Amino acid sequence: MAVLAPIQNLSAISGNGNGVGSRRRLRTRNGKGGWWVVQMAASDAAAGQIGAYEEGKLVRPKWTGQTPLSRLVGALISFKPLYSFLKLGARQVLISTAEKNNIPWREMTKEILESDVYKELESIQNRSLVYPDYYLNPFHAYDEGNLTWLAAAEAEAATMSMVRRALPDASSVDEANQILRGNWLQAIEQHHLQYSGTSMIGDILDIGCSVGVSTRHLADKFPTAKVTGLDLSPYFLAVAQYKEKKSAPRKIPISWMHANGEDTGLPYKSFDLVSIAFVLHECPERAIVNLVREAFRILRPGGTLALTDNSPKSKILQELPPVLFTLMKSTEPFLDEYYLTDMEATLREAGFANIRSILTDPRHMTMTATVPQ
Length: 373
Ligand SMILES: C[S@@+](CC[C@H](N)C(=O)[O-])C[C@H]1O[C@@H](n2cnc3c(N)ncnc32)[C@H](O)[C@@H]1O
What we know:
By secondary structure, the protein is α/β, with parallel strands linked by helices. It has helices spanning about 40-45, 70-80, 80-100, 105-115, 120-125, 150-165, 175-195, 215-220, 235-245, 285-300, 315-320, 320-330, 335-340, 345-350, and strands at about 1-5, 25-30, 35-40, 205, 225-230, 255-260, 270-275, 300-310, 355-360, 365-370. It has 14 helices and ten strands. The strands form two sheets. A seven-stranded mixed sheet has the order 6-5-4-7-8-10-9, with helices on both faces. Strands 1-3-2 form a three-stranded antiparallel sheet. S-adenosylmethionine binds near residues 214 and 287.
């Protein structure tokens, strides 16, 4: 957990470094001529090397967008018998790779499917919600996309696998998770400290919270904030609420909301931080634009938007072997649109300032921006 302390004219970055329970201090400008000191717990300080991850030479991978290679893959995928074969293959690769990496995919899924999770649906589902058309596509090898219990039960294992794939050199899934989520949170905190002119993150919205993994990380990092996780899948939210109920109670409980992040119905200027983590690569460009505009509308002046997702500049993603990118594209219908979207321009056009982007792990960038004061 990070503790913020305003100070004037501190000139040194100090720290005692390592060991459980030790703390490290980083200084950062507070936008008013002084400095903030960010005290980080050892786990934060031990997070990876933000900014030290390698970029490739291209603007985006050759297998995305309108290149001949991308079109060839698209044509292969649109051939129905091959699509069904790829879909099955992608699923099998996912599960077996996860289990080889000590992620007990089938056990985790069974545990959820055999639990009382179903009871949560009633209290969470907004029956009058109209789903955007793109959300009703087959997705991630599920014919009904994210709108099933199976997708919800498998989501946490799938998230762990994504994290493991991003950091294959980490010594364990836990360490990979600590680095990926630690770097993302650190990028958010540093941006907010530098540009918000206020220390307070009082209200946080996690758009596309899925089963609540990112939401719980945000709530742990900012324990005095009121955190809301919002998602279009009531099944995912039911799992999120079920898991949170089974965990140690928090001083400020997380709220869960079944809504479309493009049009949340939440009041203007009601959040200090809006996070959209690993959502945009699943959306067509029109939804990306709407999500960014809606974030701008609900953020307070000085508030921070944090996007994290696949980085078009990632060297690893640019050099992905054909089998892997073909499998990936077969289960992610909007990947090309995502890679073709100029994210920085989208944020600028929505009104955001101080737009910054950094590789927070070898595959993903975190883009942060501020609503002008
Ligand atoms: C890969 S998951 C996000 C994972 C999570 N944020 C994390 O970091 O672990 C993407 C989520 O975005 C949600 N989603 C997609 N479009 C959305 C929209 N327009 N509004 C709200 N949620 C959306 C999906 O239902 C899915 O749960």
